[in-house]
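Lab meeting, action items carried over

1. Structure of the two-component assembly. Owner: GW. Status: complete.
Input record:
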Amino acid sequence: MSDETRTTYKAESPALEAWRMFRRNIPALVGVVLLTVIILATLYGTFFYTGDPFEIVWAPHEPPGVTPEFPLGTDYLGRDIIAGMLTGGGPTLAVGAVAAAITMGIGIAMGALAGYYGGWVDNLLMRVTEFFQVLPALLFAMVLVTLLSPSLFTIAFAIGVVSWPQTARLTRAEFLKIKNLEYVTAARAIGARDKRIIWTVILPNALPPLIVSATLTVGVAILFEAGLSFLGLGDPNVMSWGLMIGANREYILDAWWPVTFPGLAIFFTVFAVSLIGDGLNDAFNPKLRER
Amino acid sequence: MTASFLLRRIGYGLLLMLGVVVLNFLLIRLAPGDPAVVIAGEMGGATEEMLESIREEYGLNKPLVVQLGIYVGNVLTGNLGESFFFNQPVATLIAQRILPTILLVVTAQVLSILIGVFLGVLAARKPNGVMSAFVSVFATIGYAVPVFWTGIMLIILFASVLPIFPVEGMQSVKLRDANLFVQMLDILHHLALPAFTLAIIYLAQYARLSRASMLEVLGSDYIRTAKAKGASQRTILFKHALRNAALPILTVAGLQFGNLISGALLVETVFNWPGMGRLAFDSILRRDYPTIMGVLFFASAMVVIANILTDMSYRLADPRLRGKG
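Predicted assembly:
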């Protein structure tokens, strides 16, 4: 048989297909570029621009663009704002990522067990979920952080503990949808145990909506961390964007720049994350694209 | 709507609230150190006498289960403890602060639903039009802006550039003795910026949601029937379609209430609005646990009540659910 007659059509894997869709989504790519720039700036920015964000280096409230050494000006104590912007992003992004991981971890475990086993397990876990949804998240997180004393990890932990219910509900819904499909029955027929069915048969197929949700959770967690730091409940020894806004809050009518720049940084970070989330959503659900 | 459904719903709500009380109790025990010192507040500089009276009141020398019983009993009889920082019963403190918070949260909710749904309906008329693009972009931006920062930016704008709204507090000092009507107008005037700040995030979400929900409904048969019989576009959009598209919006509105209270906490702090969020902030900074626990209790109660109201309105809005247990 010659090569010309043998045309095989290789089935495209779902992940590859999603990537192909994602690649053509311009807003999503803008999000990826934006987020990459922000991450690189917070990771390596301090190599090029050295400066202690807590150190008083100049007169207070130097407006941006006046003194070449301090392009974004100084805050109410005379601390360099660029130094704060570059060092303050790392903690925010790290807390956002860790908090989202904790959220997804608790949420997926609760939702998977509830959805898979049903019956009293489902009943119990869903009551617990409802209980956590009744507690106003930010307030509960504030209480937890205060009790555990603020550090980057306790903040991430508190955000995770208060944010998982939505993930649990989403996971449960996916499990309910998938658990009676034929390939799950087939897996059971060949003798797979519950644990195996839950984690290696159902979960991988429930992943697309969970990935989208994880992305959006990172955005929410970043906003959460910013809110807590703004209220003065962050780690006081770590500079963060929220802390910069909170510290300069009393002087906003004298100087707009110390609060405006960190706020823009938070906004662009979450904006980038949500563009990526929307892009992933479109990529995984091509049918929903017109909406 | 059946009475039994309502009763069951309220009973379940009470159970959830009992859970919140138990959680509060556990949280105080979780705090490192002597619980009596924790209750008195770290900044209190409590005397040994005060600590002894706290131990007596909360039964801190008794077994844990008895302590829990005493705590639950106290809350049930309306005794939320004493704030040693404010030197007032917690119940009194919250009674002073709860109405401003309800006013802020409900106004923000109503504003965001009304404006959001209106924008969403307009956008749904042309799925690929300018309005649709605007709603999508606006929703993404609204999701990404930290609410406290929006508030600060609005304060800068309205304090220095366009001073038409007050940027702080709930009432003007000079109007404290004016007649009731003038005072109410004054409060509304102060409410404008905080309520709008809080509404912006949710407004964007409602716009996006109602656009999607409307698009789904607009493709259905009864809309085609309405068009065929010659109904005007406005009748079709607002009467036939919106009524059916409203259910998902209602669901989200109910779920959103807890987030709204979280947002109110930040907005109240930014605008010095004298509500429960501001109280929570002040008491957390002073480690005033009785007050913090009281706020957590009442804020959760507000969410429970909002959920019950949502469930009820859901049943009123969807005739298919009526009469079902």
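2. GW to write a short summary for the group page. Key points so far: Residues 81-117 of chain A form the longest helix (37 residues). The mean pLDDT of chain A is 85.
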